[in-house]
Amino acid sequence: MMKRFTIILFLSVIMMLHSSCNGLMDIEPENSMTYYNFFKTEQDFEGIMRGAYETYRSAYEYSTPRAISGEIMDECDQYLTKALRILDATTINSDVTACSWYSYYQAITQAMMVIENIDKADLPKERHDYWLGQALFYKALCYFEIVRDWGDCPYVATSYKVEPLARKPWNEILDIAISDMKQATTLLDVWNNLTDASGNKVTTKQIPGKEAAYAMLAHMYAWEGSLLNNNDTLQKAIDVATWVIEKGGFTLAADPEEVCTKLLLGKHPESIFELEVVYTDLLWMDVYIDEELYYQSYPIEPNSEPGDIAWKDMKIKAESVLKMYKEGDKRRDAYFYKPAEMIDVEETEGWALMQRRRDIVEDKTWSSPSMWFQNFAGNVIRTRLADILLLRAECYAKLGKDDLAKSDLDRVRDRAGAARYTAAEGPIYRAVFEEREKELLLERHRWYDMVRTGYWKTDMTEEYAKLTDQDVEDGALYLPVHYSAFNSNKLMRQTRYWLKRQ
Known about the structure:
- By secondary structure, the protein is mainly α.
- Helices cover 47% and strands 4% of the residues.
- The protein is built from 21 helices and six strands.
- It has helices spanning 3-20, 42-61, 65-69, 79-85, 102-117, 125-150, 170-187, 210-227, 231-247, 256-261, 292-295, 318-324, 331-335, 385-398, 402-416, 428-439, 446-453, 456-459, 462-465, 469-474, 496-499; strands at 75-76, 271-275, 314-315, 360-362, 373-376, 380-384.
- The strands form three sheets. The protein has a two-stranded antiparallel sheet with strand order 1-3. It has a two-stranded antiparallel ribbon with strand order 2-6.
- The two termini are 23 Å apart.
- The model is unreliable at 1-34 (pLDDT under 50).
């Protein structure tokens, strides 16, 4: 990466270490890389990985508009998301901070510090493997996130070497990430057995176990297999998803109501990997780390009225909700407040009133109770059992194994009280896609589902439907690279689609 990027990153990690451990002033000056003599105890590695966990979470706290742009909505007033939905290169360009991959590369570098130094510490094999597995997991996951949002990208081979780096083909980067994640599956124990550096049981699912590594590996294989039309890779996605489903020990929530009231809060038996959100730890409690804040107000937000929906940045018509969720599907009235009654309501202008997240975050230091509300509570559910069931169904369907796809699809529908799949609905591949957008609403999956399946051509916006094959080859489905990536890096190149329009 560029010098400025690396220097800022190195200094930020030093500051993190200085505050979380005993400082760097006491390290032994043995050579020009004495910084790395710091890593001697398990607590040292825990301090670095804590930084990686928090840095990865910050990428969601101040997320790019890529994932949210693909969510279901009938109207969008959030300017960056709206601009990306209509491919407005005047608004979406290299100057937009939200288009930066900095947080992911920062977390990668933090993880690599552990990978490079773990063998120097005299740790028992069990603890050595635990920290190496944690580091490999986050390194692989961050590269996967970068590949999905930017495509081709630089690969940083070490955490300390400063040199210009060109973008490598995305599939080469993903192959490296897959290799790292496969190694993580062999190093990590199952989540229930994990303990931290002090011997305490791990209680947050942001610290991954073997199950999370297999689940994210399934997503990686599905991405690569779908984009490269590689059936062998799709079968690998099925195989690792099967491990999660059959050996992971996860159970579906009883019904959609439990999804809203318990699962989305976090640490639920259906959740596999999630980001722990403690709003009091965030700089701003009203940050859009969970997407429901864009859509949701009445009846969950205190002191709100039905008409307040008109002021939300993103909205779905009640009529659209009824088309998505057929009568009998419990998600209709769990995810939304009385949608059948809202179609012709003048006060709501026909907008649906979302109620997926039921708990709230308040700041009672304000004098007026009307100002207490800050956000809707809960963790970011990165992947859960329903997601992996439907991902396996998608891969089965793509391989022509419709009966197996139907079994997974119907398992999710049964929980929702929805009718089981029949051939009269049309191709099961399409049915699985639609089931994912219904079940995983606002969980940051739909855009990536559209890219994997090719349904961005029909299910995004008319601007995407008009894209040519050359536009797609030039990178229209990716974000532009932020200008900071070009500092002192003469090998960096802008994505062609955006370069042509800037």
